[in-house]
Amino acid sequence: SGGELSVYLFAGNQQRQLDLYSQLTGTQPLPPRWAFGYIQSKYGYRNEGQAQTFVNTIRNKRIPCDAIVLDLYWFDNMGDISWSASRFPNYQAMLRDFLNRGMKTVVITEPYVVERSKNYSEGSSKGYFAKNANNTTYNLEGWWSCGCNAALLDITNPEAAQWWWNKHTEFWGDLGGVWTDLGEPERHNGDMVHHLGSANKIHNIYNLLWAKTIFDGFNAFKPNQRLFNLTRSGFAGVQRYGAITWSGDVATSFQGLAGQIPMMLNSGLSGIPYHHSDLGGFTGTTTSELYIRWIQFGAFSPIMRAHGVDNQSREPWGYGVTAENIAKEYIELRYQLMPYIYTLAHEAQTNGAPLVRPLFWGKQNAGSFANQYDSFLFGDNFFVAPVLTAGAVSRSVTFPEGQWINYHDNTIYNGPISAQVSAPLNRIPLFVKLGSITPLMPIMQYSDEFPMDSLRLLIYPSLNGNPSSFTLYEDDGKTLDYLNGAYSKTTFTQTAASEGMIVSVEKPIGSFSSIVKQRVYTVDMRLINKSPLSVLVNNESIPAVGSESEFSASSKSYFYRGSSLLVKFAASSDSNYVVTLNGVGPLRGDREPVLATDFALHQNYPNPFNPSTRIRWMNATTSRQTLTVFDVLGNEVAVLVDEVKPAGEHEVEFVAHGLTGGVYFYKLQSGDHISVKKMVLLK
Fold this sequence. Notes:
Blueprint: H1 14-25, E1 38-41, H2 48-60, E2 67-70, H3 91-100, E3 104-109, E4 112-114, H4 120-125, E5 150-152, H5 158-169, E6 177-180, E7 193-194, E8 197-198, H6 199-202, H7 206-221, E9 229-231, E10 243-245, H8 254-258, H9 260-269, H10 288-298, E11 304-306, H11 321-336, H12 338-351, E12 356-357, E13 376-378, E14 382-384, E15 394-406, E16 412-422, E17 430-433, E18 436-440, E19 454-460, E20 468-474, E21 487-497, E22 500-505, E23 509-511, E24 518-525, E25 534-537, E26 540-541, H13 548-553, E27 557-561, E28 564-572, E29 577-582, E30 595-596, E31 600-601, E32 612-619, E33 623-631, E34 636-645, E35 648-655, E36 662-670, E37 673-681
Parallel strand pairs: 1-2, 1-11, 2-3, 3-6, 6-9, 9-10, 16-30, 19-24
Antiparallel strand pairs: 4-5, 7-8, 12-13, 13-14, 14-17, 15-16, 15-17, 18-19, 20-21, 21-22, 21-23, 22-29, 24-28, 25-26, 25-29, 27-28, 31-32, 32-35, 33-34, 33-36, 36-37
Helix pairs in contact: 5-7, 10-11
């Protein structure tokens, strides 16, 4: 409150705006590559034995995982910033053992110091905590972790910040990163006084300064290493200090899940690319179905991390065999997508582009997608529509522009259009852009289990023959050498030729210390109309095989299965490669998937509402359309539309004048199509 307001105008579409905004506030440094794997957290693993049990179990079950997060139990008292001797007596050996098995450890730390902490007396005597008006330590009574008093570190005091960081160097050792919690700050009374001013002045920038303290201290303590700092708040520019944000202690409900998408999208559009959520939700009880749907969503979030309240399982095996198998499938898919995700991270680091994007991304005008936040783009290649309703086995999906193919059943949708899409419990509605190339790696138990010397290029050619390309970004995944040019970029292209199709693999531009010199590529070309007459790699003919097992065992061959063509060959990093597929093209005629169109009624927005809300719907043909509102007894209370309307998207406003608060229903009818949805009027 008070103070000066500065306003900056960024002109252009979303990509240009974020590029300009990033020039002002900074871009996010690349996290360590392992951060894009699966991360397991819980409140909490109470001791060394429980942590070891988790690591043993997930490795034995062969479910990929890169990190375990330890909550409050790793220390004795909040503010100790040191390991509990009774709970983790051999923590150094434990951390080394975990690292040897590809498991990083992240621990929580907070800016509050309780009176029982061994650091309280020193911090208070040196004046390192927020103060009262009389310049003494401001004690917060009845602090929740102990029922005792607690003080808040004055992060605005440079001496206090340095003192606090020095405590971190004593325990960091083999840690993978930290989780800086409660930094809003969680309890920040208005009469607190800080080194730089009042609580009102400091409140919004507190966690920004804490992130800066961690970032600067880590860079001095572990030069040329990448920081992992999980946090839940910050101010504009917090991204430049490597903060990875999440949405806090969200409800374990489908409403809690649905709320994560707009938060994630808006954070990305605000220059914070790695915003994510506690998979499964935090507060309350998670059902098996909700856990599955949240894990599916998490596979396409910037960071994939499960977490939940004390004494509830958040591990994949905590909700039965079905949930475990589905969770494993989507965690494995996440690992296959790692090269693609890491390339998106490079985009975020260079120009601020978020990994997760709204449907209007790249458009000058958001149009009808301005408030479409029940689905999102995952980079440019994928469109994701999570299931957000309990018991649902299908959902209405509004597609962005372009042609999108259902990853599960190869149905093609011409956007923009709405359609009802099947979504059984083991499927999240996932669509791949036609004309896209996505690099995939083999499933690993952790992100750097072995060198990435095999890549599969998943290619969905455009049905109109347009060429496409993708440029893969790679570096060592650990150091800051990429800032000095130690990285490589490899471009893949696919084009239509007069007598077939061509896939090109260019030699990498640039280099880094652990670059792969030899690599096996598998071109996985989908939607191919027939087996090729021949396949050439750099004009050398390669043999066909008759089964997938033969293909797996060979070093150079091709195999046609249904509408997919697989081509395998070895490549050297100092050469270009051209794969020629003679006599083939994209599916045409009877074997081409149906281009889907449909009729869909969307949920009103806002909902609940008072006194007005907007209702959108899609109809595939010109027809007479009626939109009617009923109360819970089935009485008609309003007719919003009753006329012939053309095919396309439509919208109408409903103003609830004279109606009592409660549940209402709105029904759309167009020919034989009928759809009904519920809305709530609050008064």
